[in-house]
Every structure is written in C-alpha cells, then in structure tokens.
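Structure in, sequence out. Go:
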C-alpha cells in the first residue's frame, strides 16, 4: 500500500542491536582520534564547521565489520520486506557507505540538514544518497533529541531508523545538555 504521509517512509527498528553489542562498540570508540564534523557548502564549494558541531570517526575499529554487515541486513529489510509493495519500481540499491560513528559532547549538535551528500562519491562510486541509516549506541545523556521532519523521534540504545535522504526529510540532533551521545550512520545509494 502506497504511503500517503512522508513520515511513513521513516521506519524504526526497535532494539535491532542489543545493549551488549552497543556497549562493546562504545568501549572500542571512546578513545579514538575524532574529527570535527564538516558540512559541504555547495554555494561556495567548500567545507564548513561550527564550534558546536559534533565529532565523527570514519576509520576501522573492533566490531566495525559486524556493524557494517548488519547495516546491509537492515537496508535489505527496509527495501525488500517493509516496502516490498514498491518492488516493481524500487527494489535495489547500488551500495552503501561503511558506518561513521558520531560523538556529541555536551553542548554539541547537528544542525538541521538533509543528506544530499556530495563527497561520498569519488568518481568510482557514483550516484546520490537515497536512504539514511541511523542507529543509537547509548542513551545516558540529556538533550540530543533526534528530530525528523520537525517531529521528535524517540530512539533508544540499539534502535535504528531508516529514512529517505532527500530534501523532504530535514533532520537534526538538538544540543546535548550533559553526557555524551553516540550514534552511527550509513548512506545508501
């Protein structure tokens, strides 16, 4: 059945990862060399960062391979099972990025944006992002609410949300008030 509301194309997979797996990932990423998040400014063709931006980590760490393998299963479930009624015209994807870990210290956030990401394509990998896969690794922080299309989306440790990556799905993470918020993200093209 074709969905009539945009938010219906956002699918939450509650407790997809168990707390123990999320805790193991956190143990492996807390002391890594984090980089400040950067936004691509298409008007000026450059990257920008703000003082209150989150930190990101792209490289390998213990359990990353298992995390990335499970992201494939989530994508497959979203496309081939949960939205199988679209199979005549949307039944595949070209690939997905390896996971990026996001770290939000106190007073950091992710500004409202859509995932029209240009720098994930390097000439060999071509396309546009069509889906965003976002998972929460902990919940022992205050603030840091995830907002999608202006709605607060409740996500707990181990929950994963998949939603379209285009301009119709603006999203943000509100400033963390205390503690540290960790999540992961991958994009499908």
């Amino acid at each position: 059945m074709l969905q009539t509301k945009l938010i219906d194309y956002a699918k939450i997979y509650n407790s997809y990862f168990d707390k123990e797996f999320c805790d193991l990932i956190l143990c492996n990423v807390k002391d890594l060399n984090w980089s400040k998040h950067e936004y691509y400014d298409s008007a000026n063709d450059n990257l920008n960062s703000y003082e209150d931006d989150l930190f990101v980590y792209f490289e390998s760490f213990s359990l990353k391979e298992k995390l990335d393998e499970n992201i494939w299963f989530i994508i497959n479930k979203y496309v081939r099972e949960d939205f199988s009624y679209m199979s005549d015209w949307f039944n595949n994807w070209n690939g997905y990025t390896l996971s990026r870990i996001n770290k939000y210290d106190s007073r950091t956030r992710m500004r409202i944006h859509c995932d029209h990401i240009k720098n994930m394509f390097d000439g060999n990998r071509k396309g546009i992002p069509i889906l965003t896969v976002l998972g929460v690794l902990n919940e022992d922080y205050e603030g840091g609410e995830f907002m999608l299309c202006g709605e607060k989306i409740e996500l707990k440790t181990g929950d994963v949300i998949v939603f379209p990556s285009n301009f119709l799905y603006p999203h943000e993470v509100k400033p963390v008030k205390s503690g540290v918020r960790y999540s992961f993200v991958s994009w499908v093209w």
